[in-house]
Amino acid sequence: MLNLPRWQTIVIAGITLLSALFALPNLLPSSVLDHMPHWYSSSRINLGLDLRGGAHFLLEADLRSVLNERLTNLSDSMRAELRKQQVPFKDVTVEPGRALVVNLRDESTRSKAIEAIRAVDPSLVISGTGDTIRVAYSDQEMAKKKKEVIDQSIEILRRRVDETGTLEPTITRQGDERILLQVPGIKDTTDLKRKINQTAKLTFHLVNEDVAATGQNIPQTVPPTTYLVPTREGMQELRRTNPKAWEDIQSANPRLSPEQICRRYQPQCLPVLKRVVVGGEDLDDSKATFEQQQGGRPIISFTFNSAGGRAFCAATRANIGKRLAIQLDGEIISAPVVQGAICGGSGIITGSFTTQQTQEQSLLLRSGALPATLTIIQESTVGADLGADAIQAGTVAALVGTLLVAIFMFVAYGPVFGGFANLAMLVNLLMVFAGMSILGASLTLPGIAGLVLTAGLAVDANVLIYERVREEKALGRSPFSSLATGYEKAMSAIIDANLTTLVAGVLLFGFGSGPIRGFATTLTLGIITSMFSSTIFTRMLLSVWVRWRRPSELVI
Fold first, then answer.
1. How far is the C-alpha of 164 from the C-alpha of 364, rounded, in Å?
2. How confident is the model at residue 168 (pLDDT cuts 50, 70, 90)?
3. From CA 238, how far away is CA 255, in angstroms rounded?
4. Which of 3, 220, 231, 287 has the fewest Cβ atoms within 10 Å of its own Cβ atom?
5. What is the rounded CA–CA span in Å between residue 381 and residue 266?
6. For 141, what's the count of Cα atoms within 13 Å in the CB-facing half-sphere?
7. Beta bridge partner(s), residue 429
8. 319 falls in which pLDDT band (50, 70, 90)?
9. Distance CA 524, CA 504 (A)
10. Looking at 269-426, which runs of residues are DSSP E strands?
11. pLDDT score, position 315
């Protein structure tokens, strides 16, 4: 057990040295790190919001608008199915945020109409009497859809924040409609708020040429399948000529719909069909680039997945000569005339973009569209004053705890065995710091508590081994045999003890959030690294010591 080959000794020493090297940037001053390679100097532990301050946002998702949109799409599918089944109906109207109402022409076709509705979505709840059928989602389905929207929003927010270079944000749901976002180290929140406020929802719609042919910018009435959407040029002109109207639009809560903006403030608008030809969810990638012609103006190039490419190809082939409106976040940024079928699975978006705008928009499209508009209902910037006190108190606690553990090991097991255990404890802390630096994990106040606990757990395996060695020594075994047998027989207890703690740490990390995750990160890393430092590293030290000193008796 103690006869380690030379290559194993070299590997163990190499892992220990690498751990020290990756932990070192956290201890060096900035003046020294500035002269080192960026990949090495940037490999440091990030301090959490409670230690270095940052931005705190409470966001509310506009789930009502999402439901309205889904009901509108459902009404289109329902109209198509009713026509397919030859069920005569007057209209299908949307009760905002609640249900659909189908008005039949003949009450006798009610059962056939219900069959057609069931064919669209069998989970719908159907009520009403006579020639009126009311269709709504069940309470369970509504709760499921709300959860899906919030979970998807959290994931997209995480991708956006991570891609901008900010690591380890805390993003958790608060209730049914709210999201808590905490980003450490942020002082100027302007860019972050702009990315939060932009839904980045890209959709392609056909322009209703019949309505557009009337020449009216804001027609009095439009068909049920059509709605008005302002153009980007129209909104920019409104901002320039009527700043008060622009401020009213930006500050409106809840946000105004595109048609409300058109009718209330009358910028340049286009009538587009509600049916989405292709949605942004079918985008594979988007990049900011420059057009080869037209003076090299900034544009956004995009690539569809296979399903989106087929849908885009079919839509452009069937609508040659018509305008295809590209709508982004409630504005039409371009409405080119389809000259021919576009079947390559890619395209470009042109408009009055600046280079910075194309970079931001391509980032947002690449990370995905938010399924619901998020409104900031609470914002605060947390200072790092409390963090300085917490770091100082945590450092003192860690040092005192480590010192007390070291003294106990020296007293209980002597200078040799106690010294090896204490050295293993220091190596374990170095490995935890190295692991957090490599992973880019954040150190929070509960994480400091996890480090203090790790210092105690780091010597736990050595206590089990040394007690077993004492037992073997009492049975009359030789020093070498006592050590080898002690390590061999203690391993099962060490694995059991650490495995149960590791399972608890993994579950805390997987199901917890914020402070709980911070504690679980250091605890889990500490458990994993202690298996190396307490058993493998100390075994190497004892192997070298036994070969060097060849003791006739173990003083333990």
1. 11
2. low
3. 17
4. 220
5. 38
6. 13
7. none
8. confident
9. 9
10. 269-273, 278-279, 283-290, 298-304, 324-328, 331-334, 346-349, 374-382
11. 84
Asked which of 79-83, 233-237, 284-288, 456-460 is least confident by mean pLDDT, the reply is 284-288
**Per-residue model confidence (pLDDT) at position 550:** 78
pLDDT digits (tens, 9 = 90+) for 426-467: 898 889 888 888 877 777 778 888 887 887 777 888 888 888
Q: Nearest 5°: CA angle at 259, between 257 and 263?
A: 120
Residue 375: beta bridge partners? 60
- Could you tell me the pLDDT band of residue 165, with boundaries at 50, 70 and 90? very low
- Who's near 155: CB < 8 A, 6+ residues apart? 368
- Give me 508's structure tokens: 């805390």
- Dump strand ranges (E) for 143-187: 170-174, 178-184
DSSP character string of 274-319: SS-SEEGGGEEEEEEEE-SSTTT-EEEEEEE-HHHHHHHHHHHHHT
How far is the C-alpha of 505 from the C-alpha of 382, rounded, in Å? 28
Specify the residue for token string 């757990």: 457
**Residue the block writes with tokens 């064919």:** 119
Work out the percent of the chain whose per-residue pLDDT is above 70.
89
| Residues recorded for the chain | 556
301 closest CA partner among 291, 313, 309: 291
Contact yes or no for 278/304 (Cβ under 8 A) = yes
Residue 365 has pLDDT above 50, yes or no: yes
Q: How far is CA 273 from CA 269, 333, 334, in A?
A: 13, 16, 15
Which pair of structure tokens corresponds to residue 446?
Answer: 């509960």
Contacts of 372 (CB under 8 A, 6+ apart): 61, 62, 63, 65, 66, 149, 153, 199
For residues 515 and 523, what is the distance between their CA atoms, to the nearest angstrom? Answer: 12
Helices and strands in the chain, H and E counts: 20, 19
> Rg of the chain over CA atoms, in angstroms?
33
Tell the burial category of 30 from Cβ atoms under 10 Å away from its Cβ (0-12, 13-18, 19+): exposed
Give the CA angle between residues 377, 170, 398 to the nearest 5°.
130
Q: According to the model, what pLDDT value does residue 231 have?
A: 92
CB atoms within 10 A of CB 226: 22
Mean pLDDT within 66-71? 80
Average pLDDT over residues 398-406: 82
H helical segments located in 475-514: 479-511
Can you tell me which residue has the tokens 């990756």? 22
pLDDT tens track for 197-208: 776 677 889 999
> The tokens of 238 are what?
């409104």
- The Cα 137–Cα 192 span in angstroms is 35
